[in-house]
Amino acid sequence: MTGRAKIIGTGSYLPKRILTNKELEKIVETSDEWITTRTGIRSRRIAGAGEETSKMAAQAAIKALTMAGVTARELDMIIVGTITAEMVMPSCACLVQKEIGAENAFAFDVSAACSGFAYALEIADRYLKNAPDMKILLIGAETLSARVNWQDRNTCILFGDGAGACVVTGSKDENGLLASQLYSDGRLWQLLSLDAVPRRYCPVVDYKTIPDRDSFCDGSAFNMVGKDVFKHAVREMGDAVENLLKREGITVDDIDLMIPHQANIRILKSLAERVNLPFEKVYTTIQKYGNSSAASLPIALDEANREGRLQKGDLLLFSVFGGGFTWGVVLLRW
Ligand code: ACO
Question: What is the CATH number of the domain that holds 124?
């Protein structure tokens, strides 16, 4: 028996607290104009009490399960892509399992930074090749607001919190994951890194409080060489897209919609230009939610799905890039 991963339900959860660029002007030396022109970001969501990574992940999961018509007890496996789980042990996936009552599933996290969701999808696809009846819950969830240094204007303006989820099972028709390719290059880890243990405890900010310099952690070690990350993201995702399409005998004109990791609007525009894809075919949420790492792609997928942007038979391309470096591309028929 062989199968391929088919997405049968999507869901997402965004924290209630919206942090605008104007508010950020009160926290660091920056301006709405700088952030908007350099990144495309206008606001981001910040997790508050009760919106820990696993809690948001569970909320997104429940919506995806409802859409899929699958109960939590029917799940065989749960994979969460995250770099901001509440604890090193247990995994975020185990907390989600408890939260939703998926007692028949085994559960684990994938640490691939912003590429976490694509990595999880590829793992699910490999399982489904041998066991197409499996029902698998995939989640990307992050609370980066609890880990970034809110006094470092180079990084704190970029990130937001949230969770996205989908349910996959083996396809019984032509739809589903057609091809994928993942990559890593650990040699470049210093261009983008986050210490495993915060140098100081960083509480998740209560969404009701207006952020000021004192309410955020200033001790976490988030290191980023922005310009290099930008260059590598465009180059590696561009190469990955071109190589996959060539390998599969597909032209970029055949693609109906690209849903990329939401890093920076200029990265997405450069990528689209590089692979000759009209920007109207690139789905973006970066303006509203910033960069929510592994959560950004499944959140965008859920929004596109619920807006009716995805028609049965559409050819979709997911492209991701993140710390590690990790990157990859997934081609699927909706
Ligand atoms: N507000 C105002 N000025 C700022 C800010 C800010 N928030 N941040 C930096 N600056 C200043 C810099 O200090 C610098 O000043 P200087 O010239 O006096 O030294 C100036 O603005 C220009 O900075 P650059 O680094 O040249 O700005 P750049 O155009 O490269 O944009 C950015 C920076 C937005 C970080 C960009 O490099 C980028 O997006 N890189 C990709 C990073 C990324 O996406 N990281 C996310 C994680 S990885 C991923 O998801 C793919």
Answer: 3.40.47.10
